[in-house]
Amino acid sequence: MPISVRIQFMFASLTLLQKNTRFPQTIADLFIQHGVQAELRQLSSAPACHVWQWQMVGSVSEVVKAEIAQILAADKQQGVADYVLYEGPQAPHIKLAVFDMDSTLIQAEVMDQIAYSAGIGDQIAAITASSMRGEIDFQESFERRLGLLKGFDCAVLDAIYNNIELMPGAERLMVNLRKQGVYCVILSGGFSYFADRFAQRLGMQEAHSNPLEQVEGKLTGEISVRILDAQRKLELLADIRQQHGWPVAQTLAVGDGANDLPMLGAAGLGVAFHAKPLVIAEAPHHVSHFGLDGLLYVLGLSDDELV
Question: Which pTM was predicted?
Fold first, then answer.
């Protein structure tokens, strides 16, 4: 019979994001009750995002984890709190951050937006949603949706790009990651026409996605290269990390869909952002009620250190 061995970490932190100003006394009392020695810092006192972080030496027991989840369950359900309980060899000192694009860095699913312009939006959106929930394979979903877009006029793509809004907090997140010297990359199952532009707009170092193949200004509805799916995202995360010599512990991955789960699990800090229920259930961590810049507090940065 195999023996289950629990990994002992050297560092843990609990980052609590709240939409109210109430001090989380119940959490503080819980740590005292269980003899957990934790250093408490208030990282933000902004009206819409009060942030408290406890830092601890060593792992957090399963009993304490369960009680934290129970204490915060109601606030999470009401959409007024999120928390990330991180454990690792040390405090997260991120060198590489990789991001999904659609519904993570931007407030849209690009293929759906193209489809609505083509008059088949509901049909393609249903396939997209099913794929993001993990009900059908991403590659199958991608090929089916792309095939339906055959003949689409590429002259419309620029207008679609201009109408897409960034996710709240995206610009502040990227400005401050750059300030910290973090190498930022888009790993998207979407299209390079959009991923390249958003990466440049946000000051990111790389973007990897799928080409939009066209003939005489019309989409062919086909793709002749390997689709950037969940496995490819995982490979690119490993390749970029190894090229720069960064350890796994210094990597951050953020995404919202089922095809992001492998890279979320492989990163030192993997966060499902405004994700589907299946992804929340399986991801290491999740943030569902705050902007992308909330991730800066998970890294232990305070408003005094941020721009």
Answer: 0.94
